[in-house]
Amino acid sequence: MDAAGDQQLTGTPPPLKVxxxxxxxxxxxLYLLVPYLAVVIIFVVLQRKLIYRPTVANDLRVTTVxxxxxxxxxxxxxxxxxxxxxxxxxxxxxxxxAVQRPLVVYFPGNSLNRYERINDLREVVRxxxxxxxxxxxxxxxxxxxxxxxxLASDAMRVxxxxxxxxxxxxxxxxxxxxxxxxxxALSLWTSExxxxxxxxxxxxxxxxxxxPRTVAGLYPLFPFQYLLLDRWPSIERITRxxxxxxVFHGTEDDMVPVAHGRExxxxxxxxxxxxxxxxxxxxIPLLRLCAELECLELLDK
Length: 301
What we know:
hydrolase; transmembrane helix; eight-stranded mixed beta sheet; Alpha/beta hydrolase family protein
């Protein structure tokens, strides 16, 4: 008796054949959809760790890192929620303070810490400016964890510290932000801030129009731009800036396309766009920045 006859006698149904369409659907789910959803979930959970990439240090006080105490001074801000923001005020060594020099408030990018920017800070000081820099929450030896809400509120505290505690005149302060730091600087002009700063100028380097636009450009196949907790809408905030705005951007920036810088400059009430041929992300030549600072004529006031 053949196999068909055996199955009829025993009552066992014949095996079902899996169609080719079901095989394709199963493969799509297992090898495409599941990994895709896993990447999306990982991004949602870890997005702030991907955006904010600090270099943490136990102690960056002037005496600890071996800086000249005549040229660099430790500064600190305590936030209402109990965090401590540590930074430096850098000045020309031997300056007796008889003539107050203009100040650059430096908002750094999304990585490293203030010590790893020491050469850039010294370059600005050599051009005749004092420099004030604080590490963001969770960066360097500052406590806490970074987020748009916290960094934006801290930026206003830094501005108030420069004008109030340090006594610099607002019109002799230049606010400088690189990449994410440009977005942090522009958070001083949120719609909720009824009394935004009135600095002598705002200078941006490689800053994006918004975080969703940036993420969408970097990861076009994923819906990350709709899932962001921190959106940093710089293009909206720059329209409220009445001070002169200078926007630097490299033509070879593969993180934030040069079009972002051009859009920001065009959206500003008094904006100037400076394209740096061949420069990548955050590859601004500091000498070019200092030349632009000198053109602001703050040194003669």
